[in-house]
What does this fold into?
Amino acid sequence: PPVEEIVSGCRTVAIAVEDITRPTRMEHLLRPLLKRLRNAGIRDEDIVLIAALGAHRPMIRPEFVAKYGAEIVDRVLTYNHYPFDNLVYAGETRTGRAMVNRFFHEADAKIGVGTVFPHGHAGFSGGAKVVLPGVAGIDTICANHRGVSRGEGDKTGGIGVVEGNATRLDMEEFARRIGLNFVVNTVVNSQREIAGVFVGDVVDAHRAAVDLARRTYATQLPEEKVDVAILNAYPKDTELIQSPNAFNAFGERGESCVLRDGGTAVVMTASSEGRGVHYLYDRGMQLYTPAYEFPSHRALFRDYGTMVYSPNLSEADLREIYPPQTQLARSWEDVLALLGERYDAPSVAVFPFATMQFPAGG
It folds into this structure.
């Protein structure tokens, strides 16, 4: 049904929106959404826009403006979700207590806005993921992420795996439990331009978006394996902790269908914010796990060489996430020199948007 019909009779609205680490320019979605809410009689002062940070760091005003648009930030109240406080109990899901942001829970109408692209835990992002982990409590997020991160319990997730994915099923049960009314999901292209918009039920709209995402992000791999794979982490390249998402391009099997034996993966990441922040996966947090200990990555780091190219990282940053034998290159000249020590005339495959790409048919 139309947005106006869904929010009919509601006085307050909370909108959970993905944060600055994700690629979509949300102003293009929020402006028409707010117009529809206004047509339904919802006043701007009765709308709260919550940055669905999950366990990411808070955003500052210039980032709110960059992500959501100056007009939106000036019109409605914007908040950062904080997973350690301002939470209420909303019942139980298959993994335990459902703790959710109080402002989101108390609103009459609850909307989620996010992007659908490949994801190692949930198969694809979007849908219910904007509320779990987006506006959930840290223990609820931890329970949801533990299976895939540690290889414990039901660990049926992976790149492109949606149906039967226990991590996603838990997210969707949480979304139903807290009363998420509908989602606005987008699929973007490599230039972060909108390729499709899907609005409706948290499951139905998401699956329709996934159908387009599979076609949009599917990448035909080289017919023969290569010596070197260049994996550009754009557009999830603002911090090192996000950079292992570049291995999305290899799919979910835990092995490279691109590199031959003795091959090297070169991960390119601007990491303009350095190592980055994550309240589950940083050292000392509940699920601190270097990328090379993730079940889905162990074989890759065991069987192939790894290099990280970034001008904004230190060796100490690198060791927090990548295995000890990983080489750090701080210039492109360093990349070429290090590869030159290993190969005479290597064959190379370049994945320019590796965090968004995955093998065709995967």
